[in-house]
Design goal:
alpha+beta; Glutaredoxin; Glutathione S-transferase Yfyf (Class Pi), Chain A, domain 2; 2 domains; 12 helices; 4 strands; 6% strand; binds glutathione
């Protein structure tokens, strides 16, 4: 049995859902509403000592770290194979999996805190966020979170992260061109595509897709990704998308008890 502890609007969780969908694997949903700090509920730390999502539990055994989960799934359920056979192509795959984890994801966290998570203070209200945070067993992380969701967006940080993100996209363009496409590893659709595309999905919902406007190979690749049925099945459903530039906070304060785990639209 496959269980997935996940948050819908999380690029790391999207990556794992996409691997599962490409392989046609069923999974039991264990939804963790991270905005309500459910990743700190009793017992979850036994599965994931970092109290982060995603966590995959396969036949009772937890696997953590989204890219490691992706590799684990590909090794365990090799049909269809999502790693190329050619050693050069495998090196490119590993390079882009690392690029996502070490560079793209941290940039997206900065952008998301400024342009999305801060809207929670409007939608749910700071009092409710403080109340959730007070139950957080790791008060360093809770206070750091409250600091980051308070106050106006840090425009300098957004600009700096955007221009660094654009720099990484120029290298993705080069990789797609030099490998001949249509995928990051050339002809082989792989875990590299699966690692990077959910990041572009987030950046698109931050209304920053202009960051690859001048990069035709990246644009065409991302369009191809979005056409994949597995991608469409794995992406965050609209109601679970966090508030952001493309999904304004409702005019009336949201009651988190009735809103449940979703981010209702206006
Ligand atoms: N390297 C980890 C990163 C996991 C991670 O940071 N997950 C985010 C969601 S994308 C999370 O759990 N955030 C909640 C928190 O940090 O409190 C992975 O790839 O799985």
């Amino acid at each position: 049995m496959i269980e997935l502890y996940h948050f819908w609007d999380s690029p790391c969780c999207f990556k794992v859902r996409l691997v599962l969908a490409e392989k046609g694997l069923g999974w039991a949903e264990r939804y963790i509403a991270t905005h309500r700090f459910e990743h700190f509920q009793a017992g979850y730390g036994d599965l994931n000592r970092h109290h982060r999502v995603p966590t995959l539990v396969h036949d009772g055994k937890p696997v953590i770290q989204s890219s490691d989960i992706a590799l684990y799934l590909d090794d365990t359920f090799p049909d269809p194979r999502l790693q190329p056979d050619d050693p050069g192509a495998r090196a490119v795959m590993r390079e882009w999996i690392a690029e996502e984890g070490e560079y793209l994801f941290p940039l997206v966290v900065t952008l998301s805190f400024n342009l999305m998570m801060k809207l929670r203070s409007e939608g749910f209200g700071m009092d409710r966020l403080r109340e959730w945070a007070s139950r957080h067993p790791d008060q360093d992380r809770a206070q750091n979170y409250l600091r980051r969701v308070s106050g106006p967006p840090d425009r300098d940080a957004v600009d700096a992260a955007s221009s660094r993100f654009a720099w990484h996209m120029t290298h993705l363009e080069e990789t797609l061109r030099s490998g001949g496409g249509p995928w990051i590893c050339g002809g082989a659709y792989s875990l590299a595509d699966i690692a990077v595309a959910p990041i572009l999905d987030r950046v698109e919902h931050l209304d920053l897709e202009t960051l690859w406007d001048d990069l035709p190979a990246v644009r065409a690749w991302y369009r191809r990704m979005k056409e994949r049925p597995a991608f469409r099945r794995s992406m965050p459903p609209p109601e679970y998308r966090m508030w952001g530039p493309r999904k304004p906070v409702p005019a009336r304060r949201v009651d988190p008890d009735t809103a449940g785990n979703t981010f209702p639209a206006a």
